[in-house]
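Section 5.1 Outputs to date
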Amino acid sequence: MTRKTPILAAALATLVAFGALAQEQFSETKLEAFALAANELTTIRQAAAERIDAIDDPARQQEIMAEANAMMVDAIEKAPGITVEEYNEIVVAANQDPDFAERLGALLSAN
């Protein structure tokens, strides 16, 4: 049991360091660009969900999902100040760091 404690402590320290890194990794400008793009993606997702809910044909539902995915990629690519890769990196960082996710959530609410 004693041997596991240092390993767990090291793992926890790594996670804490990653969380701090995630928050410092992205500039405020980058996070604002993310928030604008994320809000556009929410609009696209909601519209697609409404269309999918109104259709019983699974093949057509798949087509609508594919169209929505393409629209979301396009929206990110057109968003000023952020790439699809950066957008995804921010999503991953938010999923791994609750404090960063909370900060990001506040920024999304403000936009």
